[in-house]
Design goal:
Blueprint (H helix, E strand, L loop, with lengths): L7 H22 L6 H14 L3 E5 L2 H11 L7 E4 L6 H8 L3 E4 L10 H6 L5 E5 L10 H11 L2 E5 L7 E2 L2 E2 L6 E5 L13 E5 L2 H10 L21 H31 L14 E2 L5 E4 L3 H10 L29 H7 L2 E4 L7 H16 L1
Parallel strand pairs: 2-3, 2-4, 4-5, 5-8
Antiparallel strand pairs: 1-9, 6-7, 6-10, 8-9, 11-12
Helix pairs in contact: 1-8, 2-8, 3-4, 8-11
Length: 366
């Protein structure tokens, strides 16, 4: 049996007729930039996240970057984030003119609040917790630290749309929430896209202009800024997908629960929701010292797996100027050598999921 890590073609095949209808209508209308579909998407997305506002932007990296600029981040500022995320969590800090400062993570792959506290300086401007794998970070502790030190909080929700912490959706806790709509994400555009959520009216009004050259109106520019608009065409297709998102999220959680139950007793660590968490399972990551051998074994069985991510950000060539060395973040570094992401996309059949689980069980039995 062949089990892909993800099958974007299958998802879009099932939606193709609806998608093509809306694309055809928009081509006829010529409404490609900042149209009604975008306004509708932003309202629906804000409702989904329990926030007053949502702003569609070009991609998830721009969401982080523009959020920092809206908060006044500038040269000399420091922003604390996790070293085990996708590199955009840190690169956006650099691009905003600030210095990325890392804090190690817990066993759940999310930033450790006590490690945050250790690296706060008088230059710290904000904290960017990453809800990695679709599991919410410890927002109560992070917000308490932010309040104590008068720091902003920007949630990196790129992998976590529909995740909840103590009954509230991610993206509704910090000053701003940043989402990616990349094709591999749980809610995906047919191309790139991103969203920023907030309850702050001033930030919302600033970001509406910041994503559109700083324009106050067609002819008036308040400040120099960027072109980072979410295309109306993408918004139209996302409006269709939004209706499917609860069903897709429930399927991911069902697959994750099946894996977790089947892996009980094996020589591996697999994730489990805490009572106050509702993870969205962008990835289902197991952890084992036999990672590389298991990955090869599964490949021979026709099962595609990935590693998210094999090289922590602080050990990337681009981060050398920060002065970090191997050993600085032991939890992150240990995890990077042991983590393996299993197929968890919602179009997987029960037979696929059973085959993956049985293959892993057989590996540990041999």
């Amino acid at each position: 049996m062949k089990v892909p890590f993800i099958d974007l073609g299958l998802q879009h095949k099932l939606l193709k007729e609806e998608l093509m209808d809306v694309v055809s209508g928009l081509i006829d209308s010529g409404q490609f930039i900042l149209g009604e579909e975008l306004l509708s998407f932003e309202k629906s997305f804000a409702d989904l996240c329990g926030t007053k506002y949502a702003i569609g932007v070009a991609n998830g990296t721009d969401a982080l970057f523009l959020s920092m600029k809206a908060l006044g981040v500038t040269a000399g500022d420091e922003i604390i984030t996790a070293p085990n995320s996708f590199l955009a969590s840190a690169s956006s800090i650099f691009l905003a003119g600030a210095k990325p400062v890392f804090a190690d993570v817990r066993s759940d792959f999310n930033i450790d609040p006590e490690e945050i506290r250790k690296v706060i300086t008088d230059r710290t401007k904000a904290i960017i917790p990453v809800h990695l794998t679709g599991r919410p970070a410890d927002m109560d502790s992070i917000l308490a630290i932010a309040h104590e030190y008068n720091l902003a909080v920007i949630e990196d929700c790129a992998q976590a749309v529909c995740a909840e912490y103590k009954g509230k959706p991610v993206g509704s806790f910090g000053n701003l929430g940043c989402f990616s709509l990349h094709p591999l994400k749980n809610l995906s555009a047919c191309g790139d896209g991103g969203v920023i959520t907030t309850n702050d009216e001033d930030l919302y009004k600033n970001l509406l202009k910041a994503r559109n050259h700083g324009l106050k109106s067609r002819d008036e520019c308040e400040f120099w800024s960027y072109n980072s608009r979410l295309d109306n065409l993408q918004a139209a297709m996302l409006n269709i997908k939004l209706k499917k998102l609860p069903e897709w999220t429930a399927r991911r959680r069902d697959i994750a629960a099946f894996y977790f139950n089947r892996f009980s007793g094996l020589d591996l660590i697999s994730p489990k929701d805490k009572p106050f968490e509702k993870a969205a399972y962008h990835t289902f990551i197991i952890q084992t010292s036999k990672r590389d051998d298991l990955k090869s074994y599964l490949s021979e069985k026709g099962i595609d797996t990935k590693v998210h991510y094999p090289i922590p950000i602080h050990l990337q060539e681009a981060a050398k100027y920060l002065g970090y060395v191997k050993g600085d973040f032991p939890v992150t570094e240990k995890q990077s050598g042991e983590i393996l992401s299993l197929p968890v996309f919602p179009e997987l059949t029960d037979n696929h999921v059973e085959y993956v689980a049985n293959s892993i069980i057989n590996y540990f039995k041999k």
